Amino acid sequence: MSALDELKQHLEQGQVYRRGDLAQWSNAVDRHLRLLVKDGTLQKVSQGVYVCPKKTSFGKAVPEDHKLVEAFLKTDDFLLFSSNAYNALGVGTTQLYNEQVVYNRKRHGKFKLGNRTFNFQMKPYFPREVSKEFLLVDLVNNVNKLAEDQSAVLERVSRVAANMDLSSLKNDAQLYGGVRAKKLFAEINNKVVTHAA
């Protein structure tokens, strides 16, 4: 068996690999990578990042965004989501975005991985998973970047927030909110508490 065939045996369809991952199974990793890309076994998605595409009846399937980002950052310490998720909150946003947002502690800027664009933003704090409360706080943090009328959106945020888990919202605003978000959610919390009393 050739060294190239031996390397191929370690590859799994649908997996994303860094050059360093493959070097352990190859005595000439750069030459082997060129050959594997040429014969379609691997696809280069970014500098030093390759995917072994999954073959389906519809052609080659792209890997999950999470796997791509994890290989690119060399860590699973990130939060991946789409700004389109704001539209499900009921605050009047309808704009569609064709990039994924990646909150992380290592990279900043827009990067194309394969045929998709990811907007990497360095943040000191972010949750492990996206919740409705986090999304509402994040929307307020980014309201000036939205296409919709800011004051109309913020007015609806106050109404939507009143029906959410207020302790989670207050907590998320403290942990992840900017100055405007902290102030807005503190006011909403005070109004609800005063109204309840």
Give the C-alpha Rg: 22 Å
Strand content: 15-25%
Question: Total helix count?
Answer: 8
Poorly predicted spans: none
Total individual domains: 2
Q: Which secondary structure elements does this structure contain, and how are they paired or packed?
A:
Layout: H1 3-9, E1 16-18, H2 19-23, H3 29-38, E2 43-46, E3 49-51, E4 54-56, E5 59-61, H4 65-73, E6 78-82, E7 99-104, E8 109-113, E9 116-122, H5 132-141, H6 150-161, H7 166-176, H8 179-196
Short description:
The chain is an alpha+beta fold. The chain is built from 8 helices and 9 strands.
Task: Give keywords.
single chain; 197 residues; alpha+beta; Arc Repressor Mutant, subunit A; 2 domains; four-stranded mixed beta sheet; three-stranded antiparallel beta sheet; 8 helices; 9 strands; 42% helix
